[in-house]
Amino acid sequence: MTDWVIVTVKCLAVLFMVLQVSALLLWVERKGSALIQNRIGANRAAIFGIGPVNLGFLNTLIADPVKMFTKEDFVPAGADRVIHQLAPFLALFPALVTFAAIPFGDTVEIAGRTVELQAVRLDVGMLYVVAMVAMGVYGVVLAGWASNNRWALLGSVRGSAQMISYEVALGLALVSMVLTYDTLDLQQMVRSQGELTLGFLPAWGIFFQPVAAVIVFTSGMAESKRTPFDLPEAESELIAGYFTEYSGGKQAAFMLADFAEIVVVSGLMTTLFFGGWQVPYLTSAGWKLPGLDLLPVAGWLVTLLQVGAFTVKVLFFCWLQILIKWTVPRFRYDQLMNLGWKGMIPVALLNLLITAGLVLLLAEGEA
Amino acid sequence: MATAEHFVFLSALLFAIGAAGVVIRRSVIVMFMSIELMLNAANLTFVAFAQRLGNVDGQAVVFFVMTVAAAEAAVGLAIFLALFRNRQTLNADEIGLLEG
Amino acid sequence: MSETAFYLLAIPTVLAASGVLLLRNPVHCALSLVVALFLIAGSYVALDAHLIAALQIIVYTGAVMVLFLFVIMLLNLQPDPDEGAHVLAKLGAGAAALGFAVIVGAIVGEWFETAPPPAVLAADFGTTRGVARTLFRDHLTAFELTSVLLLVAVVGAVVLAKRDRV
Prior knowledge:
The structure holds 3 protein chains of 3 kinds. Chain B has helices spanning about 5-25, 30-55, 55-85. Chain B is mainly alpha-helical.
């Protein structure tokens, strides 16, 4: 019984964390883009007449979702009602659920049992992530088709073609990470990044697989259709692409899915390449700096530091993606597809080959 | 206690539904979907018996069936595209070039 | 797994599969099949086949069904008005399906009664390592041939679907 409670609490905690960060990212995007574009951004929102003396960002942070959810919710004429209602959920579901496999801390002792700080411990964790990324295509495909609008359909066809193309590159790069760490379990991958190579360097993935890191990051951004890959939802060309005919809560669901995917890509990057919840030189007993003795640290402080490190890293990558979105112009569609098929996939394949060769060379010969 | 027997019964039911789909439906795409359902029912049987007998070969077979089904789906759907271009219909009753 | 959990999994699977049979709009049929395949992946997890379950979601629901949806949307297939006419045929199909399942269940049930007890599963049964060991040792030829088959399928699909450019 306690097991069920613990698992439920963990899953809810992860879910709410992703949702909260997504909502926060909405405001960060608005203000961040404003700062990048040398303007002030949204800073006037009155709630119940309390304003324009605004509490910094709180007004906008609250007013934005309220606005979205209170807009008129309509289904366009001639559109398939069932699928029109279904598509936002199909877009949102995989983005939220992927984070279940990503570990955000080491173990803690609760009620006499060791609890992994990871929503679900899967022995095929990496495949689960790939599977959920693959499921993300449905929201796009159905949203455009159910809109009874040829430009929405065009946006959705472009979007889904882009997503399935970059999925291949993403999958290949993730496979080379699986080869490097010799496991599909994400928690095990993070644990093995706690060791030190060359005596002093933490064994983070970025030092072993820089090419794979670039491919995962770029393919992740292409999967979530962020600039420079955001032609499917190009604001200046297709209005809003595949979710043109959505307003109100459903549009909020699509935007939330967008930001949740940012969080997922950031989580993936930190877990695979930047040590996950590992703080350099911090073991579960204390600070173990090279050449010095062990500096003991309390268990709860270690856990706090590790979860905090994970949070900082994930937020850094979220911020990085927002920065890239507002700095770089978008690709033309044929450039995008060429980059995916003729650029990323050969590079990912080559990386995979070299990784496999090196793993074989450096292994001690298993049975 | 749900044993492999339950799952074999489930897969028999799914197989029958898929077969009924192939026979009843007239849209070629839906017939193809029913075929995919039949393949999945067969996969489920393999996996159930693999678990019952403790032999992983069943799962290896499922791996191959999945791959072959994916390849078949790709080619089949390409055929449907070409067929639609020529006949402007995907109704099995009207694509009877070889009959009569 | 417990029986209630099995029925919780099996009944929606059968309903979703019936959806493929009974729904008129091809897109609805495709989505129904996606649900059925997802639930079958759940059955795989219940049968200790974790790798196969993940592959089912990646390959079938993540790729093959997306392809189906693409084709349906590309061709803009409308629900066939004649599809809903033959109620008798549907009833007959349902009865035949049930009958077939009962017969198979009886035959297989007989085997299960005299079968050896359920085998003790290896520690890595159904995990990636376990399946990969079998796949790459005992079935290596089939594996390589399958990869050739996939290449042939890709080339074939492109050739068949291309428009003739004069």
